[in-house]
């Protein structure tokens, strides 16, 4: 299917107005209806006509020859939006590194052992410099990738299908490429609308495959990860900063305000305070009680009652702020909410409104609002880290909002039931808010014109890394038979021409390149009259208007071109007699277009060339107020850009913290990582046959060997399965050595032989990760170890005191 066919909108989805369809920094006022001698009326212009108006107006906006204050302000705004998009991508990459290291550090801490990190972790700790700019090494391959990525961008169904095929381990890399590169210009309407089209396809498939209502959008899946990632783009961060930052900061200023309402926690805090004040507890007052006993305590209830009133007030202030700022919610987030409602009603026509609202709230509150409330420092909504009491209050506020959005359940946290009056009183209000979120217009008409503009452009390109290109190519190649089953499909043709995906590059060799995008299967649209169902006269009228607006903005103020009432023929003459060659050409062209319009009876020279003059005046009036809007938006986005940069600093600080922690581990354990028996840095699970010279162990750090018989390990459950014949098991034993902390060598021996039969090199954090992923068995060829049991044995035998 061609790009044009794919992007055409169903008639049922035409928007009521194109006001939201034009670039956020520009809006073209619809013309005033007016009858002319030809009988043509502005009131009869179709939405297609408005789209063409938008096309010419946006072209004038981007004209480099215009140097007035508005043009300068618009260029500054566009540059700022580009910087925000670029910085958002850098933050996403950093967040992936932090999340990865966070999980690995958690494994180390949970096991309470100091470990050397394996090679993969060490690579994440390298001071990765900013990606260098480069050029693609092969021009022919560059064009092939330009064709491929144009297809991926302009036909979102391919990416939508791919996101449903990849694993959770692969989704973050794909999301980086999709959210921050292919559709990385977060403030450009075409890319944003194509991305939302992709979301619609993904969500639709998710709903189609759902087996029961309760499973919709709940699990941690690639789809849910996509939705969360979308909220982390620039517009989402802008909303959080403008709406929530002040409310959160005003709360954390009250560092001593304790609003804990969990009876057990309140009792423990009360006991600690009594001990601190009196030195001992009163007779008969137990140090520890059950949750039920704490809830029955009169003293505890007396403490909680005023806290409930205060917490209710705080939660209602947050809710009021969110509801009152519904118009500030980014269009894309509201549009996703709209799709959730629409798809739910289609899949489950009998579903009650409350159930539908709970799905919308699961996205809006659980994946967007609440993470920022619970960890505002991670979103750079505050300076520093909130104190213990404000942090707990923010967590409780998030719990309240989630209960308001979902059907509240108090089984896990019975104390939250004390807030049920607040939930009951605001439930209808929140449901109305969630429904109101969905009330936004669609964008299909504007997407159609955006795609025609894109096909006409010669400078469409992506700022992309080599590994993003290769990684996307590899995923497409892996799932090609599902994504493009027909050999004649455009995607299959391009993949066949591209060949096999190149291997991923090491991080220090990765480069950023400019990838020009080309439409392999479409010719640029030059005849808009056929494509958009408008007449050649409409095109001429719009082009003439855009030319005069541009002339008036370009001519020096001293010329008086903008003086009302406008004299279009005089303006064109003025431009045609200047020394500037470009202006002379435009002036002559403008005079010619006026003559053609008059000949076609579309304007009346006796009536100051109306209706053209009136529409030029309307657009100039709009441009006059537009500059203030552009400056205001620039000021707002500068704050967003600062927040995103601050977030980058925060993430780098987290990486440095992890780096320091692991460096201390290395110091405590006596040095750098050991070389493994296979020649690389120790890490991973590798089975190697023993032969040749006996390898020397590093005596300084080595613990062991400790000897275990086959029967001993079998009795303790460490050996889960064994292929050693029963009559030979008494002759089998195992030696376990720890050359450095966290690194182990398990060797299998047979009595009477000098050398072991097999060795197993492994790292403790690999075992921990296997345990986390529910991997039950570790294969040593002749025997299989129970992962949990071998972990217990290693901890018991090799635990070292710090």
TrEMBL record:
One of its GO terms (cellular component) is cell cortex. CDD domains: RasGAP_GAPA (cd05132). Residues 1-46 are annotated as: Disordered. Residues 63-90 form a coiled coil. PROSITE patterns: RAS_GTPASE_ACTIV_1, RAS_GTPASE_ACTIV_2. Residues 20-45 have a biased composition (Low complexity). One of its GO terms (biological process) is signal transduction. InterPro entries: RasGAP_C, RasGAP_CS, RasGAP_dom, Rho_GTPase_activation_prot. Residues 190-406 form the Ras-GAP domain. Keywords: Coiled coil. One of its GO terms (molecular function) is GTPase activator activity. It holds the Pfam family RasGAP. This is Ras-GAP domain-containing protein. The lineage of its organism: Eukaryota, Fungi, Dikarya, Ascomycota, Taphrinomycotina.
